[in-house]
Amino acid sequence: MSTVPRRAFLGALYLVALAAFFEAGSRLALSNPELFERVTRTNADAAWRLRWLARQKDGPRLYYRFDVHHPSRGWAVRPHVRETGVWGSATLTTNARGLRGGRDHDYAKPPGRTRIVTLGDSFTFGDEVSDEETWPHQLEQLTPGVEVLNLGVHGYGHDQMLLYLREEGVRYAPDVVLLGFLSDDMERNVIGFRDYAKPRFDLDSGALRLRNVPIPPPEVLSERVGSRFLDLLSLVWVTYEWRSGRTSAFTRELTTAILDAIAETARSSGAVPVYAYLPVYGEIDKPDPSMTRRERFFFDYCSERGIDSVYLRPHFLPRVRAGVELKTHGHWGPLEHRIAAEGIRDRLLELGLVPAARSRHSGAPLPRNPLGEPPQPARNGR
């Protein structure tokens, strides 16, 4: 063997050995539960994927046992679910198309009825509460003559909500498309893995471009072996990008484009888009009436785009001040869902989007809107 090829061979062998060393070290480090928990505590594809793989000890599965793989959205809710004891003592039922609740809905809207399609994540779907306790179900009970279809799905970002609306939601000919907005969902828009592999959009000269589809089923994805060393490098890079502010800026830009697309899709189907900010975690009992940074982003966006919005914190704060104990961490309980349903009902009445004559509206004064302006007449000719 000549000197040059021999040096090249030894160099290549050295690189292979070095790569194997780093890979073995990375796998050893990630086998430590405490270190694994620490390094995967970030909003990165690699972190979510590693956590998902760690749950696959009993065979490939999605997240909840009532989940089903979906090629364009990653996961969906299984149709015909009849389960009790979910999240403890809650009851979960889905219809023939996987919508929460046992009643089926034809795509054709019944004559003389107002139909609302709700989009959202686990706070709309109703994690940890029973079917009749979710805010979409309670909203329907508060507004006779109105059908409320719950298209919420746990773990969804706004990107998946947009696809769900395009694929299924518009087929129901809704009068209103009601988005339950959580600011946490914005961070889901910039990743391609969360509860499971998911789609994501990129921006190409301001236009949305869909990536990551079709999404493989879990039995295929769980067999793919990747480099743990590259995963660790990815986690370090993603953490740096978040701290630099670049990812945060892109998150706002991308979310704005997706929310625009949801509103455009709703309007093109003849529906009115309404976006409701759902206060969660420490927002419910925040004593300062001024807006949070996240609320300001949301309501400024809705004001600039002419999208009707719902501000729910004024409906929670009087209960807090009266000493009512509310669930301010984790998912909402039945009471929080009820308060949200009442607040959304009041705002829809104010906008003229639900029939007031047949509603059980309490007649109490409606809260002023979040920007401190007097109530405005409904837009879109409604």
Describe the structure.
The protein is α/β, with parallel strands linked by helices and 382 residues long. It has a single domain, classed as SGNH hydrolase (Rossmann fold, 3-Layer(aba) Sandwich), CATH 3.40.50. It is 41% helix and 14% strand. It is built from 13 helices and 11 strands. The strands form 4 sheets. A 5-stranded parallel sheet has the order 6-5-7-10-11, sandwiched between helices. β3 and β4 form a beta hairpin. α1 crosses α9. The longest helix is centred in the N-terminal third of the chain and has 28 residues. The radius of gyration is 24 Å and the shape is elongated. It starts with a helix and ends in a 31-residue tail after the last helix. 37% of the residues are buried.
The portion of residues assigned to helices is: 40-55%
CATH topology, anyone?
A: Rossmann fold
Number of domains: 1
The overall pLDDT average reads 88
Spatial extent as radius of gyration: 24 Å
What's the order of the H and E elements? HHHEEEEEHHEHEHEEHHHEHEHH
Low-confidence stretches: 358-382
Q: Label the CATH architecture.
A: 3-Layer(aba) Sandwich
Q: Give the count of helical stretches.
A: 13
CATH superfamily: SGNH hydrolase
Based on secondary structure, the structural category is alpha/beta
Name of the CATH first level: Alpha Beta
Q: What sort of overall outline do the alpha carbons produce when their principal axes are compared?
A: elongated
Largest sheet: 5 strands, parallel
Termini, distance in Å? 84 Å
Q: Please provide the count of β strands.
A: 11
Strand content: 5-15%
